[in-house]
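Kindly inspect this today.
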Amino acid sequence: MATPTLDFPHLKIEYPESDGKPMAETDIHRSLMLDTIATLIDFFRNVSDVYVSGNLLFYYEEDVPSSATAPDVFVVRGVMKGNRRTYKLWEEKRAPCVVFEFTSRSTRWEDANKKALYAMLGVKEYFIYDPLAEYLTPPLQGFVLERGDYARLKPESDGSLLSRELGLKLMIEENSLRLIDVKTGEKLLTPAEAQEKARREAKARKVEAEARKKAEAEVEKLRAELAKLRGEK
């Protein structure tokens, strides 16, 4: 009697959308991450093939779900914008050109391993910032990929770090990360700053409109008085 053969159906490999880890170490780290993501999304809003994300599972080896990382912030050139549940390198066919990590004493060894991984994946620029200055000196450092390994970026004359990939300068201002447009020299606004600017501009427009309305009313009053005087004559 022939031995029956078992035909197992193809097992679909699952790629989880969460690694079960917290979004960030502290409120400061979380705010920095969210502000940087939102600021970069706004900066590249008119560029259709620049994708900005962060705290998103990034799978870099097909059929191996354990081969994953979650950059705090990353930017990819050459892929279309759009909402993604995860980022799979073999589907997108583009590694990030820039990665930001907001580090702390408790994550420093993990971040060191990430740095080596990003170099292996071909991430052209890597920036790491220790907002609490717990262990990293200086607290903001940048690296550029050269011949498969990272070389430390030298600060500009103003102390900033230049990201050629993004066209931005990075510097610490009031214990926070500030992004500056290289072309215009203008500081990019965080969502809170943009909202406050919009509020001030709306208030200024309202004041201007009220002043214009008042001035127009005064002109009409003068015209009426002048017409009355002419009529009396």
The mean pLDDT is 89.
